[in-house]
Amino acid sequence: MKMTYRWYGRDDHIPLSHFKQVPGTTGVVGGIFHIPAGEDWPEEDVKNLVQEANDAGLDLEVIESVNVHDDIKLGLPSRDRYIENYKSTMRTLSKYGIKVICYNFMPIFDWTRSDLAMPLEDGSNALAYERDKIEGIDPNELIKNILEGSKGHAMPGWEPERLAGIKKLFEQYDGMTEETLFNNLVYFLEQIIPVAKECDIKMAIHPDDPPWPVFGLPRIVKNEADLEHIIKAVDEPENGLTLCSGSLGANQDNDLVAIFDKYTAMDRAPFLHIRNVKHNEKGDFHEVAHKDDEGTVDVMGILKVLHKNDYQGYWRPDHGRMIWGEEGRPGYGLYDRALGASYIQGIWDTLEEGE
Ligand code: DNO
To answer: 253-277: per-residue pLDDT in tens?
Structure first.
C-alpha cells in the first residue's frame, strides 16, 4: 500500500519535507481549498500543486476532495452546469497524474464534531462528538463553535462562504428523503463515471462522518448496505469508495474488518483513511491514537485483511491527537499522525515478514 499524508498546501503548518522524513511516505494527498465547490479548478493551480509536491520528492496522485455542489445533491436544474465543471476538473487533474478523487455526498456539512480539542487524560487533545451537544442546538451555533475551534485554520467542508447560505440550504433540504438524495448521487455518478474511465481516475466516495443523520439531514453512506447500494448502482471499477475506519467506526454496529475485506478484495476501495475512535457508555465517541487497543477500531484486524488482499492502493493516517504541544489544524498535526503511520507500518512489515 502507498502511504500518504493529507497536506493542506501552503496553508499547512507542516512543510512537505517533514512528511518526507517519516519513513515509508510515498506521497501527499492534496486539494485546492480556495475554489468554492462547484467551480472548475484552474489548470495553473493544479499544475503548481502537483509540482510543489513533486519538487519535494513526493507523489501527489490523490485529491481530497473535489467537493460536490449542493445543487447536485439537491437535484436542482442548475446541477448540470456544476457537473460539467466537475468533469472539466477531472480532466485537468488527470492531465497532471491524479489517480483518485475523494469526495463526499453529505448535505450542507462535511464532518461534524461537538469539540475540536477535547482534553484527554494524557494531556493531549482530540476531536470529539457528543450527541447531546449537537442534537437540538441551532446549526449556526455549531458553525460558530467549529470556526472558533479551528483557531484560524481554514477547515475544509466548513467554508464560511458556503455556510453563509445555511438558512436557505436547510429550507431546500427540508423533507428530502434518503431515496431522493441517493437518486441524485446516481444521476451524478452516471455522468462522471464515464469521464473517470476516460481519464483513468478512480472516484472514491467518503462515508458520512458521523454515519447517522445530523440536524435531520439525510445520510446515505453510513454502513455496508449503503456502500453496496452505491457501488452496485453504477457497477464500474471507477465508482469506488474511500474506506474511513474512523467515520464508519463511529457506529459500532459496522463490522469494519468485514467491510475493509470485502471492498479491497473487490478492488473497489482505492483510498483508505485509518484512524481509531473510542466510545463511552452513551455511545458518544472521541478520537484517540491509532494504536489498536486505544480505541474501538480493530486496526490490526483491518491491516490483516488488507495484507491478505495484497492491497496496492493509497492510504493515509487519518486524524491524530494534538500531542507535544503542537498547534495546528485540529486532527491534522504532524506528530501523532507520524506515530500512527509508523505503528501501522510496523504491523505491515511484520505481516510481510510472516508470509
Ligand atoms: C475530515 C475528512 C473529511 C473528508 C471529506 C471527503 O477530516 O475526513 O473532511 O475529507 O469528507 O470529501
So the answer is: 999 999 999 999 999 999 999 999 9
Question: In 158-252, which ranges are E strands?
Answer: 202-205, 239-244
Contacts 24+ apart (CB under 8 A), 346-354: 347/299, 347/300, 347/303, 348/1, 348/303, 348/307, 351/303, 351/304, 351/307, 352/307
Instruction: Report domain extents, the chain.
Output: 2-353
* C-alpha 110 – ligand 1 centre gap (Å): 7
Fold of 2-353: TIM Barrel (3.20.20)
Report if pTM > 0.85.
yes
Ligand 1 nearest atom to the CA of residue 103, by list position: 12
d(CA 12, CA 7): 7
Distance 238 CA to ligand 1 centre (A): 20
Note whether 7 and 16 are within 8 A (CB): yes
